[in-house]
Amino acid sequence: MASIGWALLLFLAQLHKLFSTSSAHADASNLTRLAVHFLCRPGQADTLLQLKKSFFFDDTSATRLQSWRDGTDCCLWEGVGCDASSGNVTVLDLNNRGLFSFGLDPTIFNLTSLRQLDLSMNELSFIQSDNIPATGFERLALLSHLNLSSAGFQGQVPIGISKLVNLLSLDISNFFDDAYFYEPSDNYYENSNSLYESNFGTLVANLSNLKELYFDGVDLSLSGDEWWISLATAVPNLEVLSLAGCHLSGPIHKSLARLHSLSVINLQQNDITAGPFPEFFMDFLSLTVLQLSDTNLQGWFPSKSFQSKNLRFLDLSGNHNLSGHVPNFSNASSLEILRLTGTNFSSAKPVPLSDLKLLKELRLDGSLVSVDFLSSLGRLGSLRQLYLGFNSVSALRSIFTWIGYHHNLTSLQIRGYNFSMTTPSSLSSFKTLSRLTMYQCNLPGPIISAIGNLIDMQTLELIDCTSYGSIPSSFGNLTSLINLYVTGSTFSGPLPAAVGNLTSLKTMEIQGRYISGTIPYTIGQLNKLRRLVLSGCNLSGSIPSSIVNLTQLTILDLSDNSLNGKSIYLLSPFLVLSYA
């Protein structure tokens, strides 16, 4: 027994010695760093932690970068990627994290090993202008992919970007909204860039490796009209050219014909000098996307076929002086999106389009909305989004019969249609609709009530419609609804208390001078609401105290009513308020 006791004492003595030695090492240096080998280089971890300090967060932020902690391996942090051999940070992807800052912290330029940098869809210019550093980007000489789109930057495009000779993809665009009517943003700040470039030719002169260029929304009006030639010369292997809404001048230059590798061309919504459709685009064998809406195209559209067999997206809408027959798609059996609204195309000689089996989105108006032309399309089995604009408020039952063939629609947008001869059941049959837009339509009561049966709908827009009676309580069945717009229409009477059932709503905009009564108390149940607009109605009485429950509101507009109450002043200090 004694020998066992001595053995136990000896064991305890050795154990004490072991712990004492470990404690001494811990006091002398960082025990964690000695015990664990990190791939990340310490200096780069410090840079990232400094960058994190420049960010702040709110309830809309998708992350708070909790994994970015001192004493841990930065190569395992959210959005960070490292080279496996050197430990250098090569990727920083913070896309759409809901980050806020007062400008881009120059510390980021210490990450000179970066090959991919994505800061898009954040708000990095909170309450500040000219916040994008003019210099610093040139230090990131290894970058192959740079994405600063919709990050809230303002001012001139940094000259340092022109030195990034290894760039393959450059995106400093705004999120570009080419949808009809409303396309709501959940984020009030909208993360909009407001950038300009006075010498586009100089900016791209050294970017000879560039494959993708996204500049949507960047003001290029000061660059003149010589930039077309500079681009075609400097970037011969360009595959994606996206310059939507850039205030471009001059006609579409023939020098672009040299860029025969282009697969995506987006020049929409530019006040380009009126001219013919650039026929050379039809010869690009790799063309998949051609967006030329609102570009002042005029004259007769070429009768030749597109040579690309991979054309998926064609948008010629908004070119009111562009005439001719519907384009020939004999080679384009891959077409998925076709937009021809606001053109002067004729359906007098219908082109067989029944081979468009992959068509998912179709937008037509004018003479193309005819029984003959739509019949030539047949049943489009893949169709999910449909926009039809009628010349006048007409009741063409046979056309709505054709619409009814497509029960799998997820988005239906109708303009100028008289629903008086349409049965409610024909509308209720669209069980898969997630978006319904009716603009300048005649909507009898039964049709309005039938909308309440579309229980999976997420966006409902009734704009400038003629209807009699109040907004029905059946709208309260639309519990999946996220966006509700009822504006400029002739609805009358009170808002139904059933709107309180729409607890998924983030946007509610109801405007109409015949809408009266009080704001229902149940509106306080819409605790996800970020935008509430009830302006220009005939509402009266007190603002319900339940409105203080709407803690997510960023915009509240109750103006042009006869309301009273102080509840609104208890809401968020970040609220944009219109109450007078």
Automatic annotation (TrEMBL):
Membrane topology according to the record: Single-pass type I membrane protein
Protein location: Cell membrane
InterPro entries in UniProt: Leu-rich_rpt, Leu-rich_rpt_typical-subtyp, LRR_dom_sf, LRR_N_plant-typ, RLP23-like
Domain Leucine-rich repeat-containing N-terminal plant-type: 43-83
Domain of life, source organism: Eukaryota
SUPFAM superfamilies documented for this protein: L domain-like, RNI-like
UniProt xrefs under PANTHER family: LRR RECEPTOR-LIKE KINASE, RECEPTOR LIKE PROTEIN 30-LIKE
Family assignment from sequence similarity: Belongs to the RLP family.
Protein name (record): Leucine-rich repeat-containing N-terminal plant-type domain-containing protein
Species for this entry: Eragrostis curvula (weeping love grass)
